[in-house]
Amino acid sequence: MIHDLFATGKIYLVRTPVRGNCGIPKLHGIVASGVLGGDIDLTSGEEMYFVFTTKSLKALLILHIDEAGIDFTKRLLFSRKFKILLEEQASPLVITREQLKRLVLDGSYEGDWESVYLRRKIEEMEAAAG
After folding, report:
1. H/E/C letters for each residue in 10-77?
2. What is the pTM of this model?
3. What sign for the dihedral angle of Cα 50, 70, 78, 109?
4. Contact indicator for 124, 116 with CB cutoff of 8 Å
């Protein structure tokens, strides 16, 4: 079976910023500590994604947890910032797979696309597939 990134599982967009040098131990500790909310159960075996951003909004840190283990993805933007409203101690938002894919590709998950080129390419790909 081929595993598609973001194919299943719940996706949490964490609105409290983290330091850019965080890795798996630090991010997993944040999630496991329960500070993100009471409805997150890491022992359930359910696949989950936790999407963090740095204070500068230049890096996106994605912690993926499933029955096989934990992996970590980091996405950097150089010419602009991710469009995420950060709030200290805010509960994470549950976002859709499409919103996460768009956030990774474009830097925004709602509203107008930041990259006109990417928006055009996605529209062309959707038209060809549909």
Report:
1. EEEECCCCECCCCCHHHHHHHHHCCCCCCCCCHHHCCCEEEEEEECCCCEEEEEEEECCEEEEEEEEC
2. 0.82
3. negative
4. no
| Domain ranges across the chain | 10-96
Considering Cα of 105, then 19, then 16, then 32, what sign does the dihedral take?
Answer: positive
7-17 pLDDT per residue, tens = 678 899 998 88
Length reported for the chain:
130
Distance CA 13, CA 115 (A): 21
Sheet of 59-66: strands edge to edge? 69-76, 59-66, 48-53, 10-13, 93-95
What Å distances lie between residue 128 and 113, 121, 124, CA to CA? 20, 11, 6
